[in-house]
Amino acid sequence: MDYCDRNPKIIEWGSEEIVIPYISPVDKKPHRYFPDFYIKMVNTDGQNVRHIIEVKPKKHLKRPVKKSRTTQKFVREVATYGINQAKFKAARRYCKDRKYKFTILTEDHLT
């Protein structure tokens, strides 16, 4: 993350350093979610703001649409979608409790 190292507004950053517990809807057991990035930066008002950022392909953010028959691919997509939604819910709660901002970026944001 050369960008973070060179940006004077970024005070600190890390990759996959924060651990957020969540319950998987697939197996109903506790798991640990490691968001992609943590960034602490100075905003335009001069205040410190903390962000947790997750980078995902946008296809993982859309609810799978069932075709005429249930395939293994569809089952995997449903599981991935459900797990991601559980992670994001836990991350939003984590961020709200700490006054952080949670953002999900896709390939649309990175190109």
Can you offer a commentary on this structure?
- The chain has 111 residues and is of the alpha+beta class.
- It has one domain.
- It contains 3 helices and 6 strands, in the order αβββββαβα.
- The chain has helices at 2-6, 72-98, 107-110; strands spanning 10-15, 20-23, 30-33, 37-42, 48-55, 101-105.
- The strands form 2 sheets. The protein has a 4-stranded mixed beta sheet with strand order 1-4-5-6. A two-stranded antiparallel ribbon has the order 2-3.
- The chain is elongated and about 55 Å long.
- The chain starts with a helix and ends with a helix.
Order of SSEs, N→C? HEEEEEHEH
Q: Report how far the terminal alpha carbons are from each other.
A: 15 Å
Average of the residue pLDDT scores: 93
Strand order of the largest sheet: 1-4-5-6
Which percent range describes the beta-strand content?
25-35%
User: Rg, please?
Assistant: 16 Å
* Poorly predicted runs: none
Shape: elongated
Largest sheet: 4 strands, mixed
Count of β-strands: 6
- In DSSP terms (H or I, runs of 4 or more residues), the helix count works out at 3
Q: Look at the helices and sheets and give the structural class.
A: alpha+beta
Instruction: State the domain count.
Output: 1
Helix content: 25-40%
